[in-house]
Amino acid sequence: MSRAATVALALLPLAACDQAMQRPGMTAAFAEASASIPPACGLSDAALGAPVESRAGYTVHDTAPGTTAPRTHYITGFEDGCARPVTAALVMFGDLATHETTRYEAPDGAYTAADTAYEQIKAQACGASPGQPCGDALDRLAADTVFVSLYPVFGQESHNDLLLHGGQLVAADAPPS
Predict the structure, then answer these.
(1) pLDDT digit string (tens) for 18-44?
(2) Where along the chain do its domains lie?
(3) Cα–Cα distance between 37 and 41 in angstroms, integer?
(4) Cβ atoms of 145 and 56 closer than 8 Å
(5) 102-126 tens-digit pLDDT
(6) Which of 9, 12, 48, 140 could cysteine-pair with 16, CB 3.0–4.6 Å?
(7) CA angle in degrees (0–180, nearest 5) for 73-4-71
């Protein structure tokens, strides 16, 4: 199997690997950078898995804590009340101040979909120009805005990011190649 095919499968919810054709609405393949991870509604607390981290009104749930293998995680806290399934070995929230520091220290790097969306949200919330930190309004922005980093392989730096804001998934980066 090619690396691209392996990465694509690693980014599907585990059940979707076998059932993608019968239940395409439950897959969360990151084939392109878009905010189109389909919702998973009506899941029980047990089906969501253990809540492992919360930030900015969102919670990451792990369906198989204690393993480093790729598995389904659910993110809750969206305004529609539905979870968003993602599959990765590690899912973690990213701090906005850390994002700004690393992003603006390397301004020559290409902007991702999440970076571009963050710049637009930051400009509206903070009045900051592109490439400039939010400043004093950062805590207010962080109350409902957060990055989520998805690592398909535990221990590797390669990942893709989601940007969540105001109860919405506003951007999803393409998977690492």
Answers:
(1) 343 232 332 333 333 334 688 999 999
(2) 3-95+141-172
(3) 12
(4) yes
(5) 888 876 778 889 999 999 999 999 9
(6) 12
(7) 15
